[in-house]
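Newbie here. two chains, one complex. Structure please?
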Amino acid sequence: MKTPITTLEKVIFDASNQGMMIIDSDYHIVDINRWLVEAIDIGKIDLLGHSIFELFNFEQPQFLRRTIKQALESGLSSFISSTLHPRLFPLHNRYQNGDRYMEQSCYIKPIIFETSTYCLIQVIDVTSTVMRERLLNKTSIDLNLFKIAIEHSTSSIVITDNAGLIEYVNPRFVEIAGFTSEDAIGYSYFSQLSQAHEQQFESTIMAALRYQESWKGERSFVTKSGDKYWVNEHIYQARNANNEPTHLVAIQDDLTQIKDIARKASYQASHDSLTGLINRPEFDQILISEINRAGSATQHVLCFLDIDQFKVVNDTSGHGAGDELLRRMADIFDLYYPKDKVLARLGGDEFAVILHDTDIPQAQAISEQLIQQIQEFRFRWDDSVFSVGMSIGLTLVTAQTVSSIEAVKQAENACDAAKDMGRNRVHVYQEDDKTITQRQGDTYWATKINEALEHDRFVLYAQPIVPLLDSSRSSYEVLVRMDDTDGSVIPPGLFLPAAERFNLSHRIDRWVVDNTVSWIMKHRQEIEHIDHISINLSGLTLSNDSFLAHIVQVIENSDIEASKISFEITETAAIANITQAKHFISVLRKQGCLFALDDFGSGLSSFAYLKNLKVDRLKIDGMFVKDIVSDAIDEAMVKSINDVGHVMGMKTIAEFVEDDDIKQRLIELGVDYGQGYGLGKPVPIDQVLIVNSQIA
Amino acid sequence: MSGPVLSEEYRDTLSELFNIGMGRAAQSLSEMVDEEVILSVPSLQALRYVEALDLFTNVSNGPINAVEQHFDGRFSGNAIIFYTQSSSAELIRHIVGDLAANESFGEMEEEALKEVSNIILNACFGCLAEVLDCELKSGVPVIITGDIGAVLKKQRGNSSVDPLVLSLSMQFSLPNKAIEGQVSLIMASESIRNLVKELERFSSLYAM
C-alpha cells in the first residue's frame, strides 16, 4: 500500500498532538499517525489496509460513510461534533485512568495527492472540555436550585464582600427591610442598614469571625422607612481555596414576629380569654409583688367581687348569655375603677381588684357606689331581661399581709359574709369580725338556725297586700324573723341565704307553714275580713317531696279553707326547678291553695314560662315599681307584665309601693294589688288582728 | 454592476436548488436526532454588501452565533449561516436535548451548532455542484460569535472590493418549534458572474 506522505511530512504527521488517519475510497486506512495508534490501542500493522467499518463498530455507520463519501467524491469538508456523535471512534484517553473513553470532535476533509483523492480524518480530544462543560452544567443546575431556595427563603439573606459591602440581597430582605437591591448593593451592611448604636457590632463580628466560622446573635435593624425590627442573625464567612476570607453571608430571621408570638403566648397564659382581664395566676403574681414592695405606709385594698345572678343567667339562657354577662361586667368594672387598679377575673363569676393607695372607707364608698350602679343595670338577652346583684368583700393589703393567698382568702370570706347578709352589700374583713371568723368555723349559722328552730325563736310578721282598684279584701304576706338571744330581731336577709347555703331553708319553711296554719286556725274568726295569708317558699323546698306531703297533711288536718292559704315562689326558683315546681303547684292547687309568682321580671321573665306555671297571682318585682313614676322603661315593663298577667287570667300585685304617686300610677295602669311601705309595713302578725279590730 | 444582480428567473432556479439542498440536510438531521426536521428557504435575495449589512442589522440587531465555511470551485466565496443568540440556543436545546439547561451557550453547544450548520451548508454546496454539474469544494466550518456588523465587516476584509451577497432566509421546523436562521453566500462579483454562467448553462440544458 502506498502512503501519500513524504518523509518530512511523515515526521510532522507523527509528531501532531491530534489524531490523523488517511483513508482511501474503499474506506481502508492508508496511514495513521502515532497519536491515533496509541489512542486506538491496537498495533499499527493490524490497522493499516483495513476498512474502518470492519475495524470499528460505529453507532451510525451510514452517516459516517456518507460524510466520507462527500469528501472523497464532492470535495466537501465536514465537522462531526462530540455533542451530536459522542465517542465516534472507540478511543481511550491514556492520560485519564485509561479506562475512560475519549470524547472527540472529528474533521473529515478531502485531500488530493497526485491524482487520487483521499480522506483525512482528524480526531481532536475534547474530553476535558466535555467534562468541564458537564461540570459547569451541573453546577449551573445546582446554582439555579440554590437560587430558587434563596429567593424563596423566609429568612432574609444578604451577601457582602469581605469588607461588608453588599453584593446581594434576597427578596425576603427587600420585603422586610424595604430596601431594594439597588438601594442596598454597594452599601455597607454594617453601617447603612443598622442603627448607630448597632455599628459597634461590625468590629465584634469581624473579630469573632477571625477565630470561628460563623457569628450569631440578636440585633436590630431599621427599615428604609425608619422602623426598627429585630432579627436573629447568623453571619458566615466564605473563604477561597487559599483559605482567605472573600465574602460574608448573613442570614436573618425576623424576631419581631417571633416576639409577637411569644408576647401573644404570654398574654394568653396570663389573661382570661373571655373577658381579656388578667387571670388568677397573674393576679397572684402581681399581688405577691405588691406585698413584697409594700413599705410601712403602703395601704392598698383588695376587693373580691361576686356576681349574684350569674348562675341564673347561665342556667336559664345558656352559657352564651352567661359569658356575655361576664364580659359586660368586666367592662363595667374596668371603666368604673380608677386607671391604676389591677382588675382580674379569678374564675367563674368571681373578680378581684387591687385599689392602690386607698383606705377602707374610701374602698367601701367606691364599692357601694358600684353595687348601686350594678343594681340599676339590666342585662338583656334575647327577650329576657335580668337584674344583676353583687356582693363585695374588702381587705387591706399592707406590708403586714402574710401572703397573697391569705389576702385573697380574707377578701373572699368578707364577700361570702356580704352574701350571707343579704347580698348587694359590701363587707370589710376584720380579724376580730365574729361573723366571718365564726362562719369560717362554718357552723355559726347552721347552729344559730338550728337553735332558733329548737327554741322556737322564729317569729311571724305580716305585711298587707292591698286592693288598688276596688274595696275587696286585703291579703297578708307572712314574713319570718329571728329573735336573737340578746333580744334583737335578725332580719331574714341575714339568715335566709345562710339557711339556703346550709340546706336548712326547708326547715324554716316548714316552721313558717306550721305556725301560719296554727295561727289561722287559732284566729279563724278574727280574720274573716282577710282574703288569704301568703307564705313564701324557698327554691329548695319545691323539690322536697316529703315537705309537699307534709303541707297537704297539715292543711287536711287543720280543717281550714285551703283557699285561705297562698304560696309565693320566686320566678327564679320556679324556673330553676320547673318540673318540680309544676308538680308542687298542681298538687296544692287541687287542694284549693292559691299560688303567686314572686319577684316576677327580676330573673329572666320569659313570658313563655308563665304558660307552664298555673298560678293565680303575679307579683311584679319591686325593682320596676319603685321608679315607675320617673322611669318610662320601668313603667312599660310594669304595664306589659300587668297586661300579660291579666290576659292569662292572673291577678297582679305590685311590690315596693312606697308612696301615693306610685300607687296612683299603678291604679292608672290597672294593677290589681299593691304591697309596700306606702300601703303598710311588715308588723308582728298578731298586730294584724289589732289593726283589723280597730278598723272593724 | 447595474440592474439586478440576478434575474428573477435565476433567482427562482437558485431558490429551488437551495431548497433541494435543505431537503437533503433536513433528512440527515432527522436521522441524526431521530426526530422530524424540516428545512425550507422561503426567500432568496442578491444584494450588494452594504444593503446586506443593513438588512441583517434590521433583522437581528445584537450578538449572533455564526458558522462560516469557505467554498471554492467554478465560483467561490464564504458561506455564513447565522442565528440570533436566542434562536441558536433554542435550536441546540431542541436538537441536543437537556444538555443546555440554562441560557448559557458553551463549547459543547457551539460544536453542535457547527455540525448542524456544516450539514446544511454541505448539503447546499453538494446540491449546487451536482445539479449544475460543476466542482465545488468546501473547507472546514468555523464558529464565529459577535455582533452582526463586526462579523460581516471581517468578511468584507477577507473578500474582494465589491462583494455581493446571496442571502437566503431559512426556517427550521422542529416538531413543536419553528426557528429562523439566515444563510449568506458572500462572493466576489467575478464569482457571481461565474455562477450566473453556470445557471445559464443549466437553463439552456433544461430548455432543451
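Moderator note: DSSP finds six helices and seven strands in chain B. Residues 8-33 of chain B form the longest helix (26 residues). Thread marked as resolved.
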